[in-house]
Amino acid sequence: MIHYPDGSEYKPTATKKTYNKKGSEANRGMNLEEAINQSNEYYRDNDICLITKRPTPINVVKVDYSHGARITDAYFEKESTTDYNGVYKGRYIDFETKNTKSKTSFPFSNIEDHQIDHLERVIHHGGIAFFIIEFQLLDQIYLLDASIIIDHYRNGPAKSIPLAEVKEKGLLLEQAFSPRIKYIDAVDKLYFGK
Amino acid sequence: MIHYPDGSEYKPTATKKTYNKKGSEANRGMNLEEAINQSNEYYRDNDICLITKRPTPINVVKVDYSHGARITDAYFEKESTTDYNGVYKGRYIDFETKNTKSKTSFPFSNIEDHQIDHLERVIHHGGIAFFIIEFQLLDQIYLLDASIIIDHYRNGPAKSIPLAEVKEKGLLLEQAFSPRIKYIDAVDKLYFGK
């Protein structure tokens, strides 16, 4: 049990905030992340697949053990991998979620070099790697194989991929109540030929 | 770049400490974890497999954005999964590392219910799940399929597994310079029939 310094019990509040490296980025991608998390719980509880979110890497500098273990000084580390990974039908699954306010293309400004390296390695080792991209102003979410993003990222011509190409090569994901985003249907189509 | 409140740049110290939920547990398992991390880097850089450590889940309560993003209040969340996962030859790999000072058995006191649930699900979905167990006072490290631990954990008779059974059903891991722990050799033998 976690206690505040005055001895009262810590109770997490009902609405969790997402903290990011930059204050201005707080809450970015929150809804997509929540929807994926809810979908993963549904998929787990219904024995469909087991995909989990990687915790945000945090470097802990100081811990106060006087009332439980309270972290009093820490900082966010650079993400070196992706948001989610897990197993579906024995295969390794690895993906990154991103969103954009653009209506015409998905810009790579938010993708890190080492995430591209990581996804390339996943593919090299026979894993399934993709992006889930939300076009927020269009209310459309696509699943796109990572190799397509990697190719554009490495070889250009632009630091973005046009929405038309995302539509052509990716799959539009069905949004529903539960699971909120039926992305495993798209995985079945793209990677298991269903 | 991270700064201290006085404006000076934060520089991580060369020797990192491991922080745990309980002060008394600090540094427990540190050497095994470092050895596995080093082995994973070796395996990654030599294109053998891609296995990463899941960051410790931390719930961030307060962030000070006045000098970079500094976490000033946070606490450790309960681990709901395992230490490591990744991909080898297309298959999903998931494992937990544990160590013990016992010379005769591996006690389950350090294993959480939800870790057992998680590993059971991994197996259900066709993933490869195991424990890497270090008997510190014997300087022996074994890889043992998770199903054997799960069976003992669920069905008894004891809250531990005898070393003799670990030796019989598991594989002793070779320790070397690089990779420090050649656990993929054991994965090859146990799961790929080599």
Concise structural overview:
With 194 residues, chain A is of the alpha+beta class.
**Shape field of chain A:** globular
Please give the most extensive interface between any two protein chains, plus how many residues each contributes.
Answer: A-B, 51 and 51 residues
Mean residue pLDDT of chain A: 86
Q: Helical proportion of chain A?
A: 25-40%
Q: What oligomeric arrangement do these chains adopt?
A: homodimer
Succession of helices and strands of chain A? HEEEEEEHEEHEHEH
Determine the N-to-C terminus distance of chain A: 47 Å
Number of strands of chain A: 10
Assign the structural class of chain A, choosing from mainly alpha, mainly beta, alpha/beta, alpha+beta, or little secondary structure: alpha+beta
Structural write-up:
2 copies of one chain form a homodimer. With 194 residues, chain A is of the alpha+beta class. Chain A contains 5 helices and 10 strands. Chain A has a 6-stranded mixed β-sheet, with helices on both faces. In chain A, strands 2-3 form a two-stranded antiparallel ribbon. In chain A, strands 6-9 form a two-stranded antiparallel sheet. In chain A, a hairpin with a 5-residue loop joins strand 2 and strand 3. In chain A, helix 2 (113-124) crosses helix 3 (146-155). The termini of chain A are far apart. The model of chain A is unreliable at 1-30 (pLDDT under 50). Chains A and B meet through strand 2, strand 3, strand 4, strand 5 and helix 2 of A and strand 2, strand 3, strand 4, strand 5 and helix 2 of B. Strand 3 of chain A pairs antiparallel with strand 3 (70-76) of chain B.
